[in-house]
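can u pls check wat happens w/ 4'-deoxy-4'-aminopyridoxal-5'-phosphate
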Amino acid sequence: MSLEQPRRDTRLDHYVEAYAERTHGLKVSAVRALFSVANRPEVVSLAGGMPNISDLPLDIIGSTIGELIATRGTQAMQYGSGQGEEMIREQICEVMSLEGITGHPDDVTVTTGSQQALDLVTRTFIDPGDVILAEAPSYVGALGTFASYQARVVHISMDSDGIQPEALLSAIRSLRSQGRRVKFLYTIPNFNNPSGVLTSLERRHEIARICREEGVLVVEDNPYGLLSLDADPIPAIRSFDADNVVYLGSFSKTFAPGFRVGWALAPHAVREKLVIAQESATLCPPVFSQFVISTYLSTWDWKSQITVFKDMYRARRDAMLDGLEAHMPEGTTWTRPKGGFFVWVTLPEGLDSQALLPRAVTNRVAYVPGTAFYADGLGSRNMRLSYCFPTPERILEGTRRLGEVLDAELEIHSMFGIDSTPHPHDFAAGPGPDVS
Ligand code: PMP
């Protein structure tokens, strides 16, 4: 985002001259705009990333909450610590140990979902014009937060093993030679949203080394790590580089997003800043939610619950990959995620996912166009498909409907001899074992 962008606000808005500079580059999230149509029952939505929480033991959670209010209600409904309750910070350290992290509860700040952790980290580090390095493509919600603090996002290309180390190093060096301040690298090493890419262990070490040597902080965003569907989780970057990583976690995907509880584990000095930022944003993260999650973690077999979730998501992931195999036209490629919620599709040359969306919705299937996941307008040949929410049958049907839309479009293209050049930044440029 450039700081010199012209105003795009409408003249009908009386406050147009009053808005802060930082609001000028803000866009309505492509995902939000889609929800109104995609939520119609006749549409198979492969768009939103809502976790499927219908397997949760709602009756048990209900009675646990009733008992919580009866026995500790005055505490649970009171203001709490700006850093988060000590009990849950200890439990968060146990959760993180499943991905190889040794963290101290003192270094954990509880947040309103990991989305708020992203906000606190960005407000703590970013002045207008500072550079944030981010995978290409990257999480739309993070790009929105970065834009709201007037950061300039520079994307680093990925292949099927994650960020390309040479690209990372050369971006840092070239930005510095232009006098830009590179504040941090934002990465989602486990099942990147939107691409599903899993960063290999070797790459994690390389990324950590480059960032450490170059003095660039790593912000490791990991909401999907425990939803590894085919193998044990790979150790987090934070597990071998405690001093240079701010690690973000969340209960949204392993329990339920409605409680809005996430966290940041940060080097001590950074943690102090995050708590001050948290206090000025919310006074304290939601105490009631923390009590509920803490009670859930101490009374329920939450690890087995994650296994139940994984079995359910695996069946959906497999249905999506089968559906794509059966219905995508020639020239279409897609990632084969080993976990998380998303598949990243690259369309045949000449197709534009944004332009196709109205036709797809008319054919009762929705997705998120790839441009939502780039700060620089790229991604027009890509789309993100989510397999987390619809049933396997609906996913299969959704891919069939999508195939129809693409076939029809390709037919028009061949009829009129339409051709266009592929974008130089297209993700599937470097095929590896996970890119079909
Ligand atoms: N990071 C990533 C990569 C995500 O996909 C999401 C949710 N879609 C979040 C952060 C925010 O999640 P929450 O605030 O629910 O923890």
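The chain is about 40% helix and 15% strand.
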